[in-house]
């Protein structure tokens, strides 16, 4: 169980970096073809998702008593943010919702759902 907790903690750190990069891209900072007009609500959501994943990673990598609950709550919060992004992309004009944006949201939602499922299952098994 400890190995899986640490693995989920490391993945949470990776997801936090991905959310940070996405926040920067949504802020309008990025290399040539990835540069898009700034979307302030997306920057806020991506930053909150990054902070949530950092908290979950901290709890998992420094064995805290709340590590499993922290992984569940932070994965759920980040997944909620990504689902909000998917919804916003669905209602965005076609010119704004690029293929890369749809691919990013789908991939990160799948990874977060898998992590959430693993944290749920393993937190119940260990009791």
Automatic annotation (TrEMBL):
Keywords: Membrane, Transmembrane, Transmembrane helix
Entry's transmembrane regions: 43-61, 73-95, 101-122
Official protein name in the record: Uncharacterized protein
């Amino acid at each position: 169980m400890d190995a899986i907790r640490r693995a989920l903690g490391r993945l949470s750190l990776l997801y936090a970096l991905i959310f940070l990069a996405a926040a920067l891209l949504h802020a309008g900072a990025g290399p040539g073809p990835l540069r898009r007009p700034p979307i302030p609500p997306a920057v806020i959501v991506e930053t909150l998702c990054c902070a949530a994943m950092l908290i979950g990673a901290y709890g998992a990598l420094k064995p805290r008593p709340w590590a499993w609950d922290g992984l569940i709550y932070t994965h759920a919060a980040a997944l909620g943010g990504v689902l909000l992004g998917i919804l916003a992309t669905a209602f965005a004009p076609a010119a704004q919702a690029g293929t890369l944006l749809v691919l990013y949201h789908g991939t990160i939602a799948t990874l977060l759902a898998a992590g959430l499922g693993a944290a749920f299952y393993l937190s119940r098994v260990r009791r």
